[in-house]
Amino acid sequence: MNLILLTHSREIQKPSNTGKLVQAVITQCKTIIWQRTQADESLLQLIQAGNTALIYPAEDTPCEAAELHHFEHFIIIDSTWQEARKIYNRSPYLQKLPRIQLFSKPSVYNLRRNQITGGLCTAECAIELLHAAQNSAQASELERAFHAFLTR
């Protein structure tokens, strides 16, 4: 399983960004800075290979977590929810991907306002994805780091 964090440029320097935490703990994780006018070529190649899914809320026929084995690469949009919607809406290549919606416990992330109901921060999303893929060791390691991050 490979994680790709498609990160908004403003997100990189924010002290509340949990994507950096995911990158530090998960060895199979790559960060790509989202560019509005030009998609990252390596990301487009992964998408063209056909074994990539987007972790993003989907009301219209989302893939279930049980279908994770069909994919090798998972993209998580690393940004605020407002920015994530813009990234998704302005990136036709993301809209073509199968979307996986994670159903989990409510978010405990409290470092930002304007969270959406049922929404998870980047680290929580990665934790739930790892659990769903039965990668409990990495999920637990990231969960410990995330809770330490919240209480620092």
From TrEMBL:
<keyword id="KW-0808">Transferase</keyword>
<dbReference type="Pfam" id="PF03942">
    <property type="entry name" value="DTW"/>
</dbReference>
<dbReference type="InterPro" id="IPR039262">
    <property type="entry name" value="DTWD2/TAPT"/>
</dbReference>
<keyword id="KW-0949">S-adenosyl-L-methionine</keyword>
<feature type="domain" description="DTW">
    <location>
        <begin position="1"/>
        <end position="151"/>
    </location>
</feature>
<dbReference type="InterPro" id="IPR005636">
    <property type="entry name" value="DTW"/>
</dbReference>
<dbReference type="GO" id="GO:0008033">
    <property type="term" value="P:tRNA processing"/>
</dbReference>
<dbReference type="GO" id="GO:0016432">
    <property type="term" value="F:tRNA-uridine aminocarboxypropyltransferase activity"/>
</dbReference>
<protein>
    <recommendedName>
        <fullName>tRNA-uridine aminocarboxypropyltransferase</fullName>
        <ecNumber>2.5.1.25</ecNumber>
    </recommendedName>
</protein>
<keyword id="KW-0819">tRNA processing</keyword>
